[in-house]
Amino acid sequence: MKKQRYFRISLGWRILIGIGLGLVVGRFFYHNQTAISILQSIGTLFINLIKMIVLPIVVSCLVVGIAKMGDIKKLGRIGGKTLLYFEVMTTFAIILGLAVGNIAKPGALIDIHSLAHGSISQYTAAAKTAGNHGLGDIIMDIVPTNFFAALGSGEMIPVIFFTVMFGLGLATFGKKATPLIDAFEMISEVMFKMTNWIMQLAPIGVFALIGVTIAQFGFEALKPLLYFIIVCYATMAFFVVVVAGLVARIWHINIFEILKVFKEELVLAFSTASSEAALPKVMEKVQNYGVSQGIASFVIPTGYSFNLDGSAIYQSLAALFLAQAYHIHLSLTQQITLLVVLMITSKGMAGVPGASFVVLLATITTIGVPAAGVAFIAGIDRIVDMGRTAVNVMGNSLAAVIIAKSENEFDEQKYQQYMSGNELK
User: Fold this and answer.
1) Max CA-CA distance within the chain?
2) In angstroms, how far is the first alpha carbon of the chain from the final one?
3) pLDDT band at 112 (very low <50, low <70, confident <90, very high)
4) How does it sit in the membrane (predicted)?
5) Domain ranges in the chain?
6) What pTM was computed for the model?
7) pLDDT above 70 (res 348)
């Protein structure tokens, strides 16, 4: 008996339709507070559904992956290699942003006094935390004093640290640990099943989130800063195709194939401006693509906090944009200082609301730009956030494949089966 399919249109197309409808409805209800409130509630509900399953998936997959790996030396090698890769790619992203900012000069033609002043009060408290977010704080925050408190507050890095330790401990018990490992594996399968259910609501969630953005700011908010938005997106596209593409080519990976395979997750990340929204499906898909469970469950969640290529590009470009708008000339030494500061402050900030905006707010004071200047781009932050989130997700997907190949943990047969299956669909 042939199974009847309820949805005849693919999820990717349904999400794109949701984006289109969100643009129309948002424009129609421009500055309508009732509509904005309703759309915001629907969008928040969808994001909360995603957040509900992210940490259970990370914990269950990581416990199983580490327990099956069972080799602390191997884990240490993978961890060191992953963090080094993340740091190198993020540094390239920041340097690219600074280079393009110096060449394109997006802030040079801006009359800063003609721009509408937005509110940055919602970011101020978090920015004070980010300003003190040095290397020592990052290291100290890795170890949780209370695992369940870290789990409850969604602190990814402390949760990963505890889960890795737990998985290694579990591996030392050999066959005695098999029932518990099987239980965690069952939990991960259940969570992925829940993910598939929740993803059917993605077009509705995307529609609401896009709609509320346009209803709040309107298309008019884009006009004064259109050049800056274009420069940001062009730089991110260059990073994906050229920088990430060259790195992928070294490992015999086609960057366009990666973009095609993860297109639904990238569209979801773009439309929701949330890496969390795409994380469960990315973890599932990289394993189907051929990456081992241990690599996927370690690299993807870690990259969520440490491999933010799109955010790094935006922060460096935005810092130069504001300096140019204020007619502040930055010397080479000041730009190198900015590079170092961004390399440190951007790490582990994914859990902070509006993380890229917060890091920018905490960073620009080091180059003499008034903190109030960030208000000039507050209105378009969400628009740029969509692009940088998609780049972050792409970077983490590629990282998992590269680390797997470097460790000979990439299943070529599984990859061939997955790709041939995709071609048949």
Assistant:
1) 71
2) 20
3) low
4) Multi-pass membrane protein
5) 70-175+222-424
6) 0.81
7) no
Per-residue tokens: 407: 């460790």
Per the model's pLDDT, the better-predicted residue between 2 and 62 turns out to be 62
CA distance linking residue 5 with residue 202, whole number of Å? 18
Question: Rounded to an integer, what distance in angstroms lies between the CA atom of residue 354 and that of residue 108?
Answer: 26
Residue among 416, 307, 387 nearest 81 (CA): 307
Q: Give the pair of three-digit tokens for residue 381.
A: 């932050």
Q: If you compute the radius of gyration of the chain from its CA atoms, what whole number of angstroms results?
A: 22
Q: What is the pLDDT of residues 394-406, one digit of tens each?
A: 999 999 999 999 9
Can you name the residues that pair with 291 across neighbouring β-strands?
Answer: 410
So what's the pLDDT on residue 2?
47
Which pair of tokens denotes residue 212? 């509320």
Which pLDDT score, from 0 to 100, does residue 424 have?
A: 41
> Which residues are within 8 A (CB) of 154 and not within 5 positions of it... i.e. 6 or more apart?
51, 54, 55, 351
Compute the distance between CA of residue 312 and CA of residue 314 in angstroms, rounded to an integer: 5
Under a CB-based contact definition with an 8 Å cutoff, are residues 157 and 168 in contact? no
Which amino acid type is present at position 260? K
Span 275-313, pLDDT tens digits:
888 888 898 899 999 999 889 988 998 888 788 899 899
Instruction: Tell me which amino acid residue 279 is.
Output: L
Give the distance, in angstroms, between the CA of residue 123 and the centroid of all CA atoms in the same chain.
19
Quote the mean pLDDT of the chain: 82
184-192, long-range: CB < 8 A, 24+ apart: 184/59, 184/60, 184/63, 184/64, 184/67, 185/60, 185/64, 187/56, 187/60, 188/57, 188/60, 188/61, 188/64, 191/53, 191/56, 191/57, 191/60, 191/280, 192/57, 192/280, 192/284
Per CATH, the number for 70-175+222-424 is: 1.10.3860.10
